[in-house]
Amino acid sequence: MENNQGVLVACHECDALYRREPIPVNARANCTRCGSVLYRQIPDAMNRCIALYLAALMLWIMANSYPFLSLKVGGLVEENLLYSGGWALYKFGMPELGVLVFLTSIVFPFVTITGLLYLLIPLRFSHVPPFRGRVVRVVTTLEPWSLIGVFFLGTLISVVKLQDLATVIPGLSLFAFAALLFVYSGARANFDSELIWADKPNLREDGLGGSTSVVNCHTCGMLHLRDTHPERCVRCDAPIHFRVEDSLHRTWALLGAATLMLIPANLYPVMTVTKLGKGDPSTIISGVIDLMHAGLWGLAFIVLLASIVVPVAKLLTLSFLLTSVRRGSQWRPRDRTLLYRVTEVVGAWSMVDVFLVGMLAGLVSLGFLATIEPGIGATFFGGAVILTMLAAHSFDPRLIWDGMVSEEDDK
Ligand SMILES: [Zn+2]
Ligand SMILES: [Zn+2]
């Protein structure tokens, strides 16, 4: 503990520098400038994290071994496994979408969970695991793309939507998956990246040598002096940059591409429901209207929010932030940072429609009774969501603060 005297920490959203002071148990230290969380004090965080990630791993194995959902029509029972949704998309000639569903709902969560266990268990016994930096980099890259919660919501919506078509029987895997969602979120909430780097504390106050300009490693939070910083982080070996390189241009380009993708995503059908030989293609909007006609207002609202309101709001918000940074705007930097944070968190929930289509297609292949086939609109929509997520990642919120002129003395 005394080893941590004068250790520094930089806010990853506005780059303000702080001394890492001891704080009460269960408390959070927030950045006084932009309000984002700097670090937390979690009692016994190491053991808690290991226990939760071990439980998550077990639930993941269960979720992948037992039946997920079964459909019953007359005497016909159709059993489905967790990966059926991704597999159905693949089979219907939409491999890219199938792979996307498979990766974000099954593979990435698994890699994140096992990667963290690989790091934490040896460190718990004071051993440094080989390739620590590399594993940390893989985990931090994949974590934002582990969409367990979004996938679960898509599954629940598909269950409700299928009520009138067949009897839906939840399998053991579905319950394991629901538990996985809770345990995984709990594990993430208890995790602090300093757990992994206890033996390599961050830069200290006396190491600054009068300089206040530092480069913050985006992967592990290690600080380097701006003037003499190496190409790669001294702690985790990730490439480091003072700011995300060419952030404005890249974000604009990704936003433009996402906007283009949203047009066909809304014009082409996302799926075709064939009942008793009669096909009925539906677009995102007509899907929402169908839900309303069926009296499922809550679901209609969720799908409308996730598939139309969120993507459009995200495009507008990021465009606004980009324009404000380019103009050197002085307007409410704290609120603009908050706006960015919300955009980044909410964006992934738009994927719910893609998971829904995959799930429905995977579940409903009852021969002549009914089939649900994914449509090309879903691929465009999935592409648009991925592009907006990438755009949000490539925007550097610290640019908002770099443009502030008279802000230095309100610490
Ligand atoms: Zn801050
Ligand atoms: Zn690093």
What key attributes describe this structure?
three-stranded antiparallel sheet, single chain, mainly alpha, binds zinc ion, 13 helices, 411 residues, 12 strands, 52% helix
Written description of the protein model:
- By secondary structure, the protein is mainly alpha-helical.
- The protein has one domain.
- The protein has 13 helices and 12 strands.
- It has helices at residues 45-65, 84-91, 95-124, 132-142, 148-161, 172-190, 247-267, 284-293, 297-326, 333-346, 352-363, 376-394, 398-402, and strands at 8-10, 17-19, 28-30, 37-40, 69-73, 76-80, 167-170, 214-216, 223-225, 271-275, 278-282, 370-374.
- The strands form 5 sheets. The chain has a 3-stranded antiparallel beta sheet with strand order 6-5-7.
- Strand 10 (271-275) and strand 11 form a beta hairpin.
- Helix 1 runs antiparallel to helix 3.
- The longest helix has 30 residues, at 95-124.
- It is globular and about 75 Å long.
- The mean pLDDT is 91.
- The structure holds zinc ion (2 copies).
- Residues 217, 219-220, 222, 233, 235-236, 238 line the site of one zinc ion.
